[in-house]
Each structure stands twice: as structure tokens, then as C-alpha cells.
Design goal:
- The complex is a heterodimer.
- By secondary structure, chain A is of the alpha+beta class.
- Chain A is 16% helix and 24% strand.
- Chain A has three helices and nine strands.
- In chain B, strands 5, 6, 7, 8 and 9 form a five-stranded antiparallel β-sheet that branches. Chain B has a four-stranded antiparallel β-sheet with strand order 2-3-1-4.
- Chain B starts with a helix and ends with a helix.
- The chains are: A alpha+beta, B alpha+beta.
- The interface between A and B is medium-sized, with 27 and 22 residues.
Chain lengths: 200, 419
């Protein structure tokens, strides 16, 4: 299943690259095209982490990623340290205060891809059916309760991330190196159901 | 504001370096100070006053004859507003050179430099007519660590003066690194620079072997708006955070402690920074600006609107991200203490094409500070640790020099150390 989806996505972008890749001068690479929660989505399962999957590995050694999460009033959520999976392209950021309360959120990132290109963008999503306390009153959960390891219970393949750059153009403008990296894109994005979603 | 008799007695139309900044008003920008300074010699290119061919010809002639006094409290060519052209040349002392030879070398170089600064040929000068357009010519001298060790003068080493530590970003090439003696020549006329560099190098060569020479350029100061700092070959405004007032020069540039001979001297760090133009060109303007933390159009920080607005490192967007990114050059270079400031007098270099077809070009980074360890090393270490600009820039040369204070007629540069 995962392999099929991955292959399909890779094939799709490969073909776009072939058709339109030379038409674009832009060549930034790591702009997200997948996130969990997905941009514009409404989520009724507990959101305890953010996940971004970029088209090229993130160079965290060159520059530690910046991630921010704010609610509709601009109140920031406390976030844990971003972690990258073995491909380097999927970044998971635990929410230090545990499951998000109901509301609309904007998650933003600024990362540097392997070739040193900076990229940033935001995704917005809505949380429903949560019984967590409002952000302003939230306190960080214990370290062990922070989940950074995604499983594949739920496959999310929607895209549409907002960015301060032209997302499509950036994806289409991939260099040969970027095209190779595309094949490595694994959209293993999942929401992990926690036993104790309001654990404090 | 004291003017020495020597400065006052220079040819007419000359403004002393100290008077020069003062007359411009110490709060005005460094470049503006240069332009205003020339107002003392009627050297402005205002549209209204430069409207006739005759007037423009007159101004051009004045530009070429403009002089910067050689003698004074400080060496010329440091506080002097950046000239359009410059050369840094480094030498190693010949084996067996002792203090007597070093003294003779500095006496001869001083005599050459003082003559050239006034538009006079050296003795001898094979091309005396090339000396007649000084165009703000300055000649500045400094000693590398080897100068002290080879002459047994380790006791005279200035505080904090030593070779730089090796940085992770360095890919240093010996042909652009090190040196026992440096000669820096600057002027607004490239012929003048070449001529002066040749005369001084010939004198030095009697006592020292040439090690490297680097020449570069900036935009001319004449006839262009002077309210903005110059640009490097990446198009970035470069040198915004420079000392401009005398107080700032006293705090950052002129040595006050250390050995007595070095008082009013300064230290020089020269680093040759190669630029990756193919890589840089792949970035759109937004990414270029985020890497620098400043706007390309006018050099304003991303949190401000004009070049000299102070960057607000704590500012965040509504979405919670910092406006000046964590990896930006501006944030990384300004994170330190107030002591970590210095004067930059950069030159751009362009030496043809590499085999790749890209320009063999970059920046001759030249920085002046009283104490290298306290003021420069912490900044360079932070930038080596994290600065997105490292992706497109590579240091390929590095050298440090201690620049003695200036001297008066009859004296010579370095007399406090070699006398």
C-alpha cells in the first residue's frame, strides 16, 4: 500500500517535472507538499504532533528547522524539537502540551534543504471534538508521552500546502538532484491515536 | 578636535582625516561623510552645480587631484572613506633580515608613501607622470605574526593579535594567505593604485619576497547618490554596520591598551571570499533576502524599511516564525556582545572565468579592529557555525596584520616597534 502510493506520487511528479521542469527558473526544493494535519483539513482525532513531508531532505545540520504553531488568536503552542525520519524529508514536531484543543491553527515551518535553499510556508487546519484545555492554559506533557514515531494507521495524501512561494512552480522547478530525491519521498504520514489523549 | 601642524600644512583643498569626519557631522553616514568632506574642496557633484561641461571637467580634475594626508595620528586608508580601487599585497621577510633592515624598509616605504599621497613621484620613479593624479591615494602598512617572530619582537605583539583559528568553512589556499608585511593601497583611480603598488612593492622587495597580491574595486564615490553603502557582487549592500563617528572608531578600531607602540594602531583581517554565482543565481529574491536578513533593494533589515534601521531580531510574523531567520547572516553576525564590532573596507574582485564558466570572483573582506580575539573571532566563529550565506561563499585566503599608528614628518611607520 505504502509502496503503491509512493510510486504513484513519484510518477506523477516525475512526469510533471519532465513536462514543465525546464520552464521554471525557480529551483527551491524542500517546500512542503504534504502535511499532517493536511492544509485546510478538519481533524477530529487528537492532534499531538505536526508532520511535514518535503520533496527533498532537510539539512538540519546546516540550519536547525524553525517551526511555529499558533491558534486563531495568535497564541503560540509549545513545540518539541523537530525530528527527521531516515529519509530526512519528513519532519515530525511534537506538541509539547499534548493534544490540541478545538480551534483553527496555522502551522509554519522554515527549513533549509540539502543544497542550502531556504524554504518556508504555512498550513492551516481545524481541530474538532477535542476535550483538551485551551492553549493558553496548557502545560507541557511529560517527555515520554511525546510521540515522535509515526505509524501507518492512517494514510494522508492530500496536498495543497500554502507557502510564501509559488508551491507548484517550486516543485516543478526541480533540478536533476531534486528529481532523484523525489523518488525518496515517502508519504508515511499518520496520526497516532493515543491511549490518553489528554494525558497531563 | 586637534589638527596637527603637519595636517594643516598639506596642500590646499585637503581636509584632514579627523577634520573631515567632523566637518561632515559625526552622525552622518560613512559614505556621506566622504562626500561631504569633499565639499571642503568644492568637490560635490550636485545636479545644480555640475550642469555644464566645463563644470564637470573641473570637478573631475579636482577628484583626480584630491589628496589624503599621509602623516597623522593614525595611518591613512583606515578611517578614509572607501576608495573605488585597492590592492592588498603581502610579503615575507627575506632570511637574515634583522631589525636594522626592517627599520630601513619601513623608513623607505614611509618616504615613498608620503610622496605618493601628495601626487609626487617616489625616488626614483620610472613613471613619474602616473603619480600626478593621487585621487585620494592612501598607503597603509602592517606587520604579520611572522614579522614579530622573525625579528625577535614577540614582546611587542598587540593584545589579541595572533593567527586566526581554522574555521570549518575555510578552504584556504597558500597563495592568498599569511604574510609578514602587508601594503594596502587605495585610490579612486586604478592607474594610481597600480603605480603606487608597484613603487611600494619594489621598495619592499629589497627586504622581502612577494607572497600574494589581491586587487579589487568598489563603485566610484563620485557622482552617485551617497546615501547608501556599496554593494558586493551578489548585489548585497555590504558594510552597513560600520563605525562612523570618532567615538565609534575609538571604541572599535584604534588600540588603546596593549603595548605602547601600538596605541592608535589597529589590526587587519584580510579574507578572500570566493562566491558561487551559479548557486546564488538559483535563488529567488525572497530566498536571497532571507539568507542575508536584509532586502536586496536597499539593504534594509527584513524588520525595517531603510538601510540603517536596526534589525529587530525578536520580531515574529503572525504565524510565529521569526522575521529575520535563524540562519540569516544578519542574525548570526549580530547575536554577540556590543564589543564584537569592527570596521569593514571590502573590495570586490573579479579575475576572469573559472573552467566552469563561472566568474572567478568574490570579495576581499578587509576588517579593522583593535583586538582580533575579542572583536572578530567570536563573530567569525558564529558565522562558521551557522550562516546560510556559507552555502554560496567560501573563504579561500586569510591573513592578519598589526597596523602601527601613523607618524609625523621625519618619523616612519612602525617607529615605536623598530626604533
Amino acid at each position: 500500500m505504502i509502496r503503491k502510493v509512493t510510486a504513484a506520487i513519484a510518477a506523477l511528479f516525475m512526469s510533471l517535472f519532465v513536462v514543465a521542469g525546464t520552464a521554471s527558473m525557480a529551483s527551491a526544493h524542500s517546500d512542503t507538499f504534504q502535511s499532517v494535519p493536511a492544509s485546510g483539513s478538519t481533524v477530529s482525532t487528537p492532534v499531538i504532533e505536526l508532520q511535514f513531508t518535503f520533496v527533498e531532505p532537510v539539512n538540519a545540520e546546516l540550519s536547525p528547522p524553525e517551526v511555529a504553531l499558533v491558534d486563531a488568536e495568535g497564541v503560540p503552542a509549545q513545540l518539541g524539537a523537530p525530528a527527521l525520519d531516515e529519509t530526512g524529508a519528513t519532519m515530525t514536531v511534537p506538541i509539547a502540551t499534548g493534544a490540541l484543543p478545538n480551534g483553527t491553527y496555522t502551522a509554519s515551518y522554515r527549513i533549509v534543504s540539502e543544497d542550502g535553499h531556504p524554504a518556508s510556508g504555512s498550513v492551516s487546519f481545524t481541530v474538532e471534538g477535542s476535550d483538551a484545555d485551551p492553549l493558553a492554559e496548557a502545560v507541557p506533557v511529560e517527555e515520554e508521552a511525546v510521540v515522535t514515531e509515526a505509524d501507518a494507521e492512517l494514510m494522508v495524501t492530500s496536498s495543497g500546502a500554502e507557502s510564501d512561494n509559488s508551491q507548484l512552480q517550486l516543485v516543478l522547478g526541480l533540478s536533476a538532484a531534486g528529481a532523484v530525491a523525489l523518488a525518496a519521498v515517502l508519504v508515511i504520514v499518520a496520526l497516532r491515536r493515543r491511549r490518553n489523549s489528554t494525558g497531563k | 578636535m586637534t589638527q596637527t601642524p603637519a595636517e594643516s600644512s598639506e596642500t590646499t583643498g585637503v581636509v584632514s582625516r579627523r577634520g573631515f569626519l567632523a566637518s561632515a557631522g559625526v552622525v552622518s553616514s560613512y559614505v556621506a561623510a566622504g562626500a561631504a568632506g569633499f565639499a571642503g574642496g568644492a568637490l560635490t557633484l550636485n545636479a545644480a552645480s555640475a550642469s555644464t561641461p566645463e563644470r564637470e571637467a573641473e570637478l573631475r580634475a579636482q577628484q583626480q587631484s584630491a589628496t589624503i594626508p599621509f602623516y597623522g595620528e593614525y595611518q591613512a586608508g583606515i578611517m578614509t572613506p572607501l576608495q573605488a580601487y585597492g590592492t592588498y599585497a603581502a610579503f615575507t621577510l627575506k632570511p637574515g633580515t634583522g631589525i636594522d633592515q626592517a627599520r630601513a624598509m619601513m623608513q623607505l616605504l614611509t618616504d615613498d608613501a608620503a610622496r605618493l599621497a601628495k601626487g609626487k613621484p617616489t625616488l626614483p620613479d620610472g613613471e613619474p607622470f602616473l603619480a600626478t593624479e593621487p585621487a585620494r591615494l592612501t598607503s597603509t602598512f602592517g606587520f604579520g605574526p611572522g614579522f614579530f617572530s622573525k625579528l625577535g619582537l614577540q614582546g611587542g605583539l598587540p593584545d589579541g593579535f595572533a593567527e586566526l583559528p581554522s574555521f570549518s568553512i575555510d578552504k584556504l589556499q597558500p597563495e592568498y594567505s599569511g604574510g609578514d608585511l602587508v601594503i594596502h593601497v587605495g585610490a579612486d583611480n586604478p592607474l594610481t593604485v597600480a603605480h603606487a603598488a608597484r613603487q611600494l612593492s619594489r621598495t619592499a622587495h629589497t627586504f622581502a619576497e612577494p607572497l600574494w597580491s589581491q586587487s579589487g574595486f568598489n563603485r566610484p564615490q563620485y557622482g552617485v547618490p551617497s546615501d547608501q553603502t556599496g554593494r558586493n557582487l551578489f548585489g548585497q549592500v555590504d558594510g552597513t554596520v560600520n563605525p562612523r563617528s570618532e567615538n565609534e572608531f575609538d571604541a572599535q578600531v584604534w588600540a588603546s591598551g596593549g603595548p605602547s607602540w601600538f596605541r592608535d594602531g589597529t589590526c587587519l583581517v584580510v579574507r578572500r571570499i570566493q562566491m558561487d554565482f551559479a548557486g546564488w543565481d538559483k535563488l529567488d529574491d525572497t530566498k536571497k533576502e532571507s539568507a542575508m536578513g536584509r532586502r536586496l533593494s536597499n539593504g534594509a533589515p527584513l524588520t525595517g524599511s531603510t538601510e540603517f534601521d536596526a534589525p529587530d531580531l525578536s520580531a515574529k510574523f503572525e504565524n510565529g516564525l521569526s522575521v529575520i531567520p535563524s540562519f540569516s547572516h544578519v542574525r548570526r553576525s549580530r547575536m554577540g556582545t556590543d564589543a564584537e564590532k569592527f570596521l569593514r573596507r571590502p573590495l570586490n574582485y573579479e579575475d576572469g572565468l573559472l573552467a566552469s564558466g563561472e566568474p572567478n570572483a568574490g570579495l576581499i573582506f578587509a576588517a579593522y579592529m583593535a583586538d582580533i580575539q575579542k572583536q572578530f573571532v567570536p563573530v567569525q566563529q558564529r558565522l562558521a557555525d551557522l550562516d546560510l550565506m556559507n552555502t554560496w561563499t567560501t573563504p579561500i585566503g586569510s591573513a592578519v596584520f598589526a597596523l602601527p599608528p601613523g607618524c609625523q614628518p621625519g618619523g616612519y611607520i612602525g617607529e615605536g616597534l623598530l626604533g
